[in-house]
Design brief:
Blueprint (H helix, E strand, L loop, with lengths): L2 H12 L4 H5 L3 E6 L2 E7 L13 H16 L4 E12 L8 E12 L2 E10 L2 E16 L2
Antiparallel strand pairs: 1-2, 2-4, 3-6, 4-5, 5-6
């Protein structure tokens, strides 16, 4: 299999049991070796007391793209540490996109950066550290 086929099959193996993103309306738009793109539309149920998208939903979108990127090699990987910087608010009806890219991967650890955008503007930056665990996806 090519690296692209491994990434796609790994994503396909994860999706049936990945209930949280599905419940939030998160869609996996693309996967490749060490990268993934995911998106969601901000709904009225996702806003906070300021009328903007709650940061937890933005984090969940970033974490989902990160998960598909770090699991794109067929080996199971989980988050070891994550952080996010919120740069601009997101409003009801905006489509948010998260693009995860691998920065470094060696042995059992990886580092991934996720850029979140809405209407072409960067709204948040996320960094995730992954750790592989026993088991494979495919």
């Amino acid at each position: 299999m090519t690296p692209e086929e491994i990434a796609r099959r790994s994503a396909d193996a994860m999706m049936p049991d990945d209930k949280a993103p599905a419940a939030l309306g998160i869609v996996i738009d693309d996967v490749g070796p060490g990268e993934a793109a995911a998106s969601m539309v901000v709904t009225e149920a996702m806003v906070n007391g300021h009328g903007t998208c709650h940061g937890g939903y933005i984090f969940a979108l970033a974490d989902t793209a990160f998960a598909y990127a770090c699991n794109s090699y067929g080996q199971r990987a989980v988050a070891q540490h994550c952080s996010i910087s919120f740069l601009k608010p997101a409003q009801i009806g905006m489509k948010l996109t998260a693009l995860a890219r691998e920065r470094h991967r060696a042995e059992r650890s990886g580092i991934y950066d996720v850029t979140l955008t809405a209407d072409g503007d960067v709204i948040a930056e996320f960094r995730g550290h992954s750790r592989t665990v026993p088991g494979t996806l495919i």
